[in-house]
Write a structure and sequence with these properties.
2 copies of one chain form a homodimer. The first copy, chain A, is 30% helix and 23% strand. In chain A, the strands form 2 sheets. Chain A has a 3-stranded mixed β-sheet with strand order 4-3-5, with no helix packed on it. In chain A, strands 1-2 form a two-stranded antiparallel sheet. In chain A, β1 and β2 form a beta hairpin. The longest helix of chain A is centred in the middle third of the chain and has 14 residues. At the A-B interface, β3 and β5 of A face β3 and β5 of B. β5 of chain A pairs antiparallel with β5 of chain B, so a sheet runs across the interface. Chain A binds a DNA duplex (30 and 30 nucleotides) through α2 and α4.
Chain lengths: 132, 132
DNA sequence: CATATATTTGCATCAATGTTGCAAAAGTAA
DNA sequence: TTACTTTTGCAACATTGATGCAAATATATG
């Protein structure tokens, strides 16, 4: 865990390790409020900046679930300095409200005659395995 | 224009028509700030609720461009009561910052062995035709 | 056309979230 | 241990989303 942070050029402070541990406790993407309730006392701004630096360093990525709410999930390998490289789609179960990173779905290829598509994200909705 | 609103069961008030006209002036998706600067005086809450009712009625749809900013664009046919049916991807040009609804890109099909995918959205990034 | 009804607007007020500046604290390297 | 850089915690502020309510407006009905 410390290694992970240092490999991204982030100092391994107790607070950051605590937040990282919370991510590790959950299988799927989590909301800010989940992190907040897992933490005992914490400074709101510090947490906000922690998440921000995690995103910038490529430790976690942000997922826009519906129109409004957002969640966060640990990155896989290969994410660095805001250049997130995710070979998975994000799936939101409309029953249990869980948000999954699905690397079992093959990413399609997109082509446009005149536009150059350098990257794209896919957010899917539906019903997950256990709710099915 | 009045017909459009009434077909969605929205009353055709002057303010709503004014906002709709602004959408008509722009080819691509626009930000809230663009609407605000086009309007002379306006009430912030009323505009907020106008956009909200447009989205709920299927007149416009919301586009999440990057992690943060959002834009709005007129819906095509077939969007009703929050059941937006868009057969296009959203493309954000990293040069000119314009956001396009690209119906020239074929929507791929997604499959998962155990999850039921009912709908999905695609946000792409890259360089648009005129910036290319 | 006038009126009754339902919706919309404008205003006040509030909540949640994101942001900045700065001094103290803590981590890192020499 | 010291010097330097980053992070934290606090205050203060900006932006955005949301609700309640009375006045204004739109629509339907007689």
């Amino acid at each position: 865990m410390e290694k992970l942070l240092k490999s991204k050029n982030l100092r391994a402070t107790p607070f950051r390790l605590e937040v990282l541990t919370i991510f590790g406790k959950y299988e799927n993407a989590i909301e800010m409020s989940t992190i907040e309730s897992e933490l005992g006392n914490f400074d709101r701004i510090t947490l906000y900046r922690t998440i921000k630096s995690f995103i910038q360093a490529g430790v976690v990525h942000e997922i826009h679930v519906n129109g409004d709410s957002k969640k966060f999930a640990l990155c896989a390998e290969g994410c660095e300095n805001l250049h997130h490289q995710h070979d998975h789609i994000h799936f939101h179960c409309t029953v249990c409200q869980e948000t999954f990173c699905l690397d079992t779905v093959e990413m399609p290829s997109l082509n446009h005659p005149t536009f150059t598509i350098s990257s794209f994200d896919i957010q899917a909705q539906g019903i997950c395995e256990s709710c099915n």
